[in-house]
């Protein structure tokens, strides 16, 4: 990103202690934004980390001449999230954008998934997106502007094996963002989603691959889908240049940026007098099968290499 398109803006980034969130925070700071670096400081499986990743990233930003504030609250907790937003406003005087990239994984095949596996992932991803967005909403409404950038995933948009909890949360974030864009558009507030393809610790435990396949897959991802390649799209959506863009779902993959479709009816069957189970059994599948969405995974849909 060239220039200082975000000069003076205050932006909260969750999950900013490493990977995608860190690269986003550094890129936003280079663009002149004052960044609230939020990271709970846990490992991917939720265990306490040995140091404060949020403080490290904030220190890196300030050492480069930028302005940053570290926050170690949990986005899964409403009180902690509300306190973080209030602290951001009191420290910097305003709030212009929120980027929610915090996440955890509890990958397991569905019939083995526990309620705790499901709940913990939903709390960080979907509840976290609600908490941080809802806490920021009154500030945005009052000032008549604001931008949300919420991270979704192709796991929810397309499909993934062993990630029913993660996919459910990520698709829920799309609906949340769409609703925010409709409810708050009248106040000059916009909300968009990004489905990033970027190597980070979040993809190191993707199930369904042998150790050899996993290493080949990860080595390729390290080279072709870097976290810093997603950051420009985040910066754009936080900037005034995107003031007319809201309610959309974007993807970023290597040097590619793309727009996802959103669900709309694609075929219709009408029968005078209505339908019965018997008539549906006879007519529905033959009429609609060619339009069924196949059970594909992300790598089936993105059949070309990222460059």
Termini distance?
A: 19 Å
Give the mean pLDDT: 92
Class of secondary structure makeup: alpha/beta
The H/E string reads EHEHEHEHEHHEHHEEHH
Strand content: 5-15%
Helix content percent band: 40-55%
Fourth-tier CATH superfamily name: NAD(P)-binding Rossmann-like Domain
Radius of gyration: 20 Å
Gross CATH architecture: 3-Layer(aba) Sandwich
CATH class type: Alpha Beta
Largest sheet: 8 strands, mixed
Total number of beta strands = 8
Tally of helical segments = 10
Write down the CATH topology: Rossmann fold
The tally of structural domains comes to 1
Strand order of the largest sheet: 3-2-1-4-5-6-7-8
Stretches where pLDDT is under 50 for at least 5 consecutive residues are none
Pfam families: adh_short_C2
Protein name: 3-hydroxyacyl-CoA dehydrogenase
InterPro entries: KR_dom, NAD(P)-bd_dom_sf, Peroxisomal_Beta-Oxidation, Sc_DH/Rdtase_CS, SDR_fam
Domain Ketoreductase: 9-187
Description:
With 307 residues, the protein is an alpha/beta fold. It has one domain: 3-Layer(aba) Sandwich (Rossmann fold). The chain has ten helices and eight strands. The model has no long low-confidence stretch (mean pLDDT 92).
Secondary structure layout:
Layout: E1 10-14, H1 19-30, E2 34-38, H2 53-63, E3 67-71, H3 78-92, E4 97-100, H4 115-143, E5 146-151, H5 154-157, H6 164-184, E6 189-197, H7 211-224, H8 231-238, E7 249-253, E8 256-259, H9 277-288, H10 298-301
Parallel strand pairs: 1-2, 1-4, 2-3, 4-5, 5-6, 6-7
Antiparallel strand pairs: 7-8
């Amino acid at each position: 990103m060239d220039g200082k398109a975000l000069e003076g803006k205050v932006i909260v980034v969750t999950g900013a202690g490493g990977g995608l969130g860190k690269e986003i925070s550094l890129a936003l700071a280079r663009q002149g934004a004052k960044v609230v670096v939020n990271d709970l400081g846990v490992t991917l499986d939720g265990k306490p980390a040995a140091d404060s990743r949020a403080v490290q990233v904030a220190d890196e930003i300030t050492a480069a001449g930028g302005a940053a504030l570290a926050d170690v609250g949990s986005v899964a907790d409403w009180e902690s999230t509300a306190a973080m937003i209030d602290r951001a406003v009191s420290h910097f005087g305003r709030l212009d954008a929120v980027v929610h990239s915090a996440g955890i994984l509890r990958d397991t095949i569905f019939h083995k998934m526990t309620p705790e596996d499901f709940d913990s992932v939903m709390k960080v991803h979907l509840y976290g997106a609600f908490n941080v967005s809802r806490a920021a909403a009154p500030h945005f409404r009052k000032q008549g502007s604001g931008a949300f950038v919420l991270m979704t995933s192709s796991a929810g948009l397309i499909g993934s094996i062993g990630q029913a909890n993660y996919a459910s949360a990520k698709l829920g974030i799309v609906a949340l963002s769409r609703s925010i864009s409709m409810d708050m558009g009248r106040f000059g507030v916009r909300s968009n989603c990004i489905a990033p393809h970027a190597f980070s610790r979040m993809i190191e435990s993707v199930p369904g691959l042998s150790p050899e396949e996993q290493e080949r897959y990860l080595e390729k991802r390290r080279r072709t889908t870097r976290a810093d390649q997603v950051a420009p799209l985040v910066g754009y959506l936080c900037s005034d240049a995107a003031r007319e863009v809201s309610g959309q779902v974007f993807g970023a993959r290597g040097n590619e940026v793309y727009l996802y479709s959103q669900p709309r009816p694609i075929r219709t069957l009408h029968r005078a007098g209505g339908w019965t189970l018997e008539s549906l059994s006879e007519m529905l599948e033959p009429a609609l099968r060619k339009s069924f969405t196949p059970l594909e995974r992300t790598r089936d849909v993105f059949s070309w290499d990222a460059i």
